[in-house]
Amino acid sequence: MDKQVIQSTGFRNIVENGTVTGFQVKIRLPYYRGVYLSQIKAGHLIVDGETFGEEEIMWRVNGEDYTYADMRKDCHTHWHPMEPAVLLVKKPGGLSQGYHDLTYGFYCTHSYMPPAMEALEDPDKPAVVYFVEFGQNVNSRRLLIV
After folding, report:
1. Alpha helical stretches, state H, the chain
2. Each residue's pLDDT tens digit in the chain (146 positions)?
3. What are the phi and psi torsion angles at 118 (to 5°)?
4. What is the distance, to the nearest Å, from the Cα of residue 111 to the centroid of all Cα atoms in its chain?
5. Residue 1, SS3?
6. In a 3-state reduction of DSSP, which class is residue 19?
7. Residue 48's closest CA among 15, 89, 20, 86?
C-alpha cells in the first residue's frame, strides 16, 4: 500500500457490459486501529473540479458494497487499516485518459474523543484539531488513468 491515503493502484474506469459506467479509486485508513463503518463520516470526492457526493459514491469494504446510508447504520463491518477500501463512483463515460487531480475527505469518530469536539469536524475540510495518529481527513493526489 502507498503511504498516501489515496492509493495509486486501482485507479481506473469501471466497465459493465461493455459500457463505462464510472470509475474507482482506492483509499486506505490512516488510523492504526481500524474502524467500524458507522464511525466513518464520508465527504465529497472532487476530481478535476467536479464534485461527487453521497448519491454517486459507494464504498467497497471487505468485498461488500455500501452506500453512505448503509455505512451510517453498520456497526458490525470493520475496516482494517491494512485493507484499502474502494470508492466506486457513478459517472457515465468515466474519466478520460490522462492525469486527474483528486481530493477526498472522510473523518472517523473515536470512542475516546469528546463528542463535542468531533461534532466540529467536517469531512470536506482540514481537521479542527489534528492528531497524527488519526491522519489528515482531507487528502489530495494526482493520478493517471491509461
Report:
1. 68-73, 115-118
2. 898 999 999 999 999 999 999 999 999 998 888 999 999 999 999 999 999 999 999 999 999 999 999 999 999 999 999 999 999 999 999 999 999 999 999 988 776 766 666 676 778 887 766 665 566 688 999 999 98
3. -70, -25
4. 21
5. coil
6. strand
7. 89
Q: Provide DSSP, 111-130.
A: TTS-HHHHTT--TTS--SS-
Nearest partner of 138 among 16, 128, 8, judged by Cα: 128
Give me the pLDDT at residue 18, please. 97
Are the C-beta atoms of 110 and 117 separated by less than 8 Å? no
* Cell output for 91: 459517472
Beta strands in 37-116 (DSSP E): 40-47, 50-52, 57-61, 64-66, 78-79, 85-90, 98-108
- The cell for 9 is 493502484
Q: Please, which residues bridge with residue 38 across strands?
A: none
Upper half-sphere CA count for residue 138 (Cβ side, 13 Å) = 14
Beta bridge partners of 139: 104
Coil, helix or strand at residue 81: coil
